[in-house]
Amino acid sequence: MRPAPQPGQPPGQRDWRDSRTLDLVLINRNYRYLWIGQAVSLIGDMVFHTTLLLWVATVLLKGKSYAPLASTAVLIVASVSTVLVAPVAGVYVDRWNKKRTMLRADLLRAGLIAMLAGMAFLPSGTVPVPVILLVTGLIVALTTAVSQFFNPARAVLIGDVVPDEQRGQATGYGQATGALATIVGPPMAAPLLFAAGPQWALAINALSFLVSYVAIRAVQPPVAEVVREPEPGSSVRSEFVAGLQLIRRSRALVAMLVVMVLCMLGVGSLNALDVYFVQENLHVDARWLGLLGAALGAGFLIGSLAGGKLGDRFGHSLVYRWGIAVFAVLFLCYARSASLVFGMIVLLALGTAVGMVNTVMTPIVLKVVPREFQGRFWATLMPLNSAATIGSMGIAGTVAGSLPVGFRLDLGWITFGRMDLVFTGGALLAIAGAVYALFAMRDADNAQPAEEKSEPEPALDGSRA
To answer: Under a CB-based contact definition with an 8 Å cutoff, are residues 267 and 331 in contact?
Structure first.
C-alpha cells in the first residue's frame, strides 16, 4: 500500500521514501534522475572543453606561435564569467523555482552549443578563423554564465529531495561522477575530433544538455516550491548584501570561505606548474604528467565515495576538518617528492583527501544556510574559488618564472629548487587553513542555521532589481 501524500505535497506525487527497494540504489527516484542528468552533461562538458582546446591548438591555429595564448584565453574567459555572473545569479536562484531554473539553463546551453556546432559543420574556410575564435569565446562565456544559475539550483534541489542523513552519500555520488567524467571525457575527445571532426563533439555536448533536461523534468520534489517575490524596495544588490551579512554571522560559513581561499591560493600553483615540477623535481619526462593526473583522479574518486558515507556516520564537520589537515600535509610531502613513484602515491592519497572534503561541504552548507539563502552562498563561494585560483596561478607563475632554471636555495639541511620552493609555500598556506579549520569548524555539525533577517537591507541608492 502506498503511503498517503504528505502535507503540502501535490496530488499524485510520491513521497521520497516510497519505492524503498529502488532507494537502495542512488538513494531515491528523484536523486537518480538528478544523477543521470549530471553524469551525461558532465561527460559532455569534458568532451566539449577538451575538444575546444585541441581544436584551437591543432586545427584552427596549428603552427601559430600565439596558439597557447588563445587556449589560455578560453580558460580565463570561463573564470571571469564565473566571477562576474555568479553573485547576480545567486540572488535570482534564491528567488526562482529551482527545477524550472535548471530546465531553462539546460535548454539555453544546448542551444548555445548547437549554434557553435552548426558553425563547425560549415565547409572549411566559410567562416574566418578570427570569427570562429571570437564566437567560441563568446559561447564559452555565455554557457559558463548560465551554469552559474544551474549549479546552485541543483545543490538546493538535492537538499529538497534527499533526506538529511543521506546528503553526504548523495554528494559523494555527485563528486565521484565528476571524477569519472574527467577520466572518461578527455580520452573520448581526441579520437572524436580527429576521426569525425569538432562538429560532432560539439553536437554530443549539446545533446547531453537535452538528456539532462529530460532527466530533470522527471524529478518530482516532495513539496511544491513557492516562488519568492522580492521584498518591496529590495534590489539584486541589497539581497546579495543580505546574503553576505548572513554568512558573516555564521562562524562555520566564514571559516569555510577562509579555508577555501587559503587552500586554493596554495593549490593553484600545482595546477599551473606541475608539468615543470615533473621534469625538474621528479626527474622524468613531461609525458608522465598524465599518469600523475590519473593517480590524483583515482584518489578523488575514492574519497568522493568514502567521504559522504563517513560524513553521514561520524559527522561532516569532522571529515571536513581532518580531510583539510591530511590534504595540507600531503601537499607538503608532494612538494618534497623526488621520484615518480613516491609522487604518484602521495597524489593518490591527496586526491582521496580532496574528494572527501569536497563531498562533505554540501551537507554542511545545506544544514547551516537557510534554504532561501543557499543560492547566494554558492554565488559567493564560486567567485572566491575562481579568484583565488587565478591569483595563485599568477603569483606562482611569476615567482617561478623569475627564478633561473637550476635555482638552488639551501636552508640548513633542506635544499629547495624553484618549483618545490613555490609548492612548499602553497602547502604552508594550506596548513594555515587546516589549523584554522580544526578550531573554527569544531562545532559545525551542531550549528543551527544562520540567523536570517526578515527583509533584505535596501540598496544605498534605493534602486530596484
So the answer is: yes
Nearest to 344, CA basis, from 288, 284, 292, 266: 292
Distance CA 115, CA 374 (A): 32
Whole-angstrom CA distances from 382 to 85, 86, 90, 132, 289 are 10, 7, 10, 29, 27
283: phi > 0 → left, psi -120 to 50 → alpha, else beta; which?
Answer: left
Same fold, 20-220 and 240-444: yes
Structural contact between residues 170 and 27, judged by C-beta atoms closer than 8 angstroms:
yes
> Does the 20-220 domain belong in CATH 1.20.1250.20?
yes
Residue ranges per domain, the chain? 20-220, 240-444
Set of cell numbers at residue 383 = 567567485
Q: How many Cβ atoms from other residues are within 10 Å of residue 7's Cβ?
A: 6
Q: Residue 263 is placed in which grid cell? A: 587552500
Helix runs in 218-288, H state only? 236-248, 251-280
Angle at 464 between CA 461 and CA 465, to 5 degrees: 125
Q: Give how far Cα 405 sits from Cα of 340, 417, 422, Å.
A: 20, 9, 14
Q: Output b/e per residue, 61-73; b: 16+ Cβ within 10 A.
A: beeeeeeeebbeb
What pLDDT shows up at residue 5?
41
Element (H, E) at 312: helix 289-314
Residues 6+ apart with CB under 8 A from 33: 215, 216, 218, 219
The superfamily CATH assigns to domain 240-444 is MFS general substrate transporter like domains (1.20.1250.20)
Average pLDDT over residues 352-367: 89
Contact 106, 210 (CB under 8 A): yes
Q: Tell me the pLDDT tens digit for each residue of 261-312.
A: 999 888 878 877 887 888 888 988 877 877 888 788 889 889 988 888 898 8
